[in-house]
User: Fold Beta/gamma crystallin from Camelimonas lactis.
Amino acid sequence: MSATTRPRPRPRFNGAIAALALAMLGGFAFPAAAEVRFGNNVRIGGHDFSHQTFDAKRRGRIYLYDRKPRREGCVWKADGRGGQVRVCHLQRVR
Assistant:
């Protein structure tokens, strides 16, 4: 047996892997900020939703029914995480 050992090959630094890792890290570190702004003459199911803004803290949930809903109209409710949800039960206008 000889006492000589072969040196291990050094792993090569791959720039593509590093760029992918940085992109993933940036995606997790900075969450996406989305906001929906309705402009003029916006109608959902025939109901007017003009000039309303929804984002992560103020969200909207709209239910459309073919018949008259049991709880007709819109109400603001707390979502339990510090935000508000506008829940609308509306009858589709034809």
